[in-house]
Structures are given as C-alpha cells and as structure tokens.
C-alpha cells in the first residue's frame, strides 16, 4: 500500500519517530533528584530504588568502597568469583545509575552465560586472557579474546559470558549503567530455581529426556 506523504497517517508516524529521537538515555536508571541519596538498606518502605539515609548522618565513608581490594575466592564450580560493587554493597551508588563488579577467574574459570535486565555492561581486562562472548536476540554470536587493557561492551539484556582461556589467573572489572543491574544466570535460573520449573517444560524446551534434566539439576542442588 502506498500512503501519500501528506496523509494524516504519514504525518503522525513522522511525529512519533521525532518524539522518540531525543530520548536515548531512557535506557539507563532514572536521573537523581538530589546531589546524593545514600541508600538506607534497612528502611521498611519499598520504592523504586532505596530511600535516602538522613543527610545529617552521611559521612565521607558513604562515598568510598574498598570491596575490590581483595581477590575473590574462585573455588566454586565455575572457577570464578564476582565481587559486586552495586547499591547493596556500596549504598552510595543509590539512584546514580551506575555500578561495577570485580571478576576473578582461576585458569579455565567461567562467568557462565547470564544477562543483566537493567543495564548494558562494559568491562576491561586487567590481568590474563579472557574469551568474551554474547548472543544477539537474532541468535548471532559475537566474541573475542581480550588481554590486559582491552575493553568490551555487552548491550543491555543480551546473554553473555567471560571465560579465562589463559594458563594463569585472570582479573577484570565491569561497569553498568544501573545501580543494581540484576543478573539472570541461565544455568541457575533454569535448572536451580526454587521451586523448580516442571520437568516436562524443560524436556520439551531442550528436546531431551527427563534423566538429562535431572542430571543437570543435580549439579546445582547445593
Ligand atoms: C542498617 O542496619 C545495620 C545493622 O543493623 C547498621 O549497621 C547500619 O548502620 C544500618 N544502616 C542504616 C543506613 O541505617
Ligand atoms: C575458598 O572457599 C573454599 C570453599 O568455599 C574454602 O574451603 C577455602 O578455604 C577458601 N579459600 C580462601 C583463600 O579463603
């Protein structure tokens, strides 16, 4: 169908596109409405974010975080450890729309396929050699091996992973445009939810028999 360029429909769709153009920043957490809002994680009320600690009780320490000074313990089944620097560990980030993680990897260690519902992610490798990969919503896989000083970006919500393919430990730092990016870790989300997703859903979804689902579940039972 050809729509004359002066039709009301055409003009409305142009207006709609124009309205959307100036607002790319809507893909991050909302802007703060004050200089700072140190999270009061103990507050009994719940808002979109955390209520602020009274300004009179704020100290310099609220703006600093030393959680990344220690190497993470990588003796988990994945051989990797994520130390979060998000609003829950560093309440000074509350409402500021940003956070970071420290990622430690044993040789062969994996940060398993996962996605962040509320943020894009960028990261830099500090030590070692990491295979970083993600998959688009069109199921296209992008990946690269990165060494110290090299950066990557994972667009918001896409499934991605990092794997240490070097012979030594690896270290990286990541940053998010959310104070609490959230993490959907696929193997745990699908096979270790409480309560469990029904077996017949998973056998049909993955086109395998129940014993395979049970075998995978058993790896995550603890
Ligand atoms: C929250 O509670 C903990 C322990 O009860 C306390 O140490 C901390 O200072 C409290 N934080 C705020 C912001 O009130
Ligand atoms: C790392 O964690 C494991 C088990 O969780 C523990 O046995 C080990 O002592 C820890 N290592 C260090 C250096 O803390």
UniProtKB/TrEMBL annotation:
Residues 1-28 form the signal peptide. SUPFAM superfamilies: RmlC-like cupins. Disulfide bonds join 37-52. PANTHER family: GERMIN-LIKE PROTEIN SUBFAMILY 3 MEMBER 3. It is found in: Secreted, Extracellular space, Apoplast. The gene is LOC108999231. The keyword 4Fe-4S does not apply. One of its GO terms (cellular component) is apoplast. Residues 66-214 form the Cupin type-1 domain. InterPro entries: Cupin_1, Germin, RmlC-like_jellyroll, RmlC_Cupin_sf. Oxalate binds at residues 101, 111, 116, 121. Belongs to the germin family. This is Germin-like protein. It comes from Juglans regia. Mn(2+) binds at residues 114, 116, 121, 160. One of its GO terms (molecular function) is manganese ion binding. It comes from the Eukaryota. Keywords: Apoplast, Disulfide bond, Glycoprotein, Manganese, Metal-binding, Secreted, Signal. May play a role in plant defense. Probably has no oxalate oxidase activity even if the active site is conserved.
């Amino acid at each position: 169908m050809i729509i004359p360029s002066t039709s009301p429909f055409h003009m409305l769709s142009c207006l709609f596109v124009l309205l959307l153009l100036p607002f790319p920043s809507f893909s991050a957490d909302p802007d703060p409405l004050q200089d700072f809002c140190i999270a009061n994680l103990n507050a009994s009320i719940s808002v979109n974010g955390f209520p602020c600690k009274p300004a009179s009780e704020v100290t310099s320490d609220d703006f600093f975080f030393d959680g990344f000074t220690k190497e993470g313990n990588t003796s988990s089944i994945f051989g990797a450890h994520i130390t979060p620097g998000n609003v829950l560990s560093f309440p000074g980030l509350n409402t500021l729309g940003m956070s970071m993680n420290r990622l430690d990897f044993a040789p062969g260690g994996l940060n398993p396929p996962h996605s962040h519902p509320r943020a894009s992610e960028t990261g830099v490798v500090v030590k070692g050699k990491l295979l970083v990969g993600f998959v688009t919503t069109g199921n296209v896989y992008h990946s690269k091996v990165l060494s110290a000083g090299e950066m990557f970006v994972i667009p918001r919500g896409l499934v991605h992973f990092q794997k240490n393919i070097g012979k030594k430990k690896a270290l990286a730092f990541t940053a998010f445009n959310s104070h609490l990016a959230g993490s959907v870790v696929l193997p745990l989300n699908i096979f270790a939810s409480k309560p469990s997703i029904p077996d017949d859903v998973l056998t049909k979804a993955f086109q395998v028999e129940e014993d395979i689902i049970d075998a995978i579940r058993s790896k995550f039972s603890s």
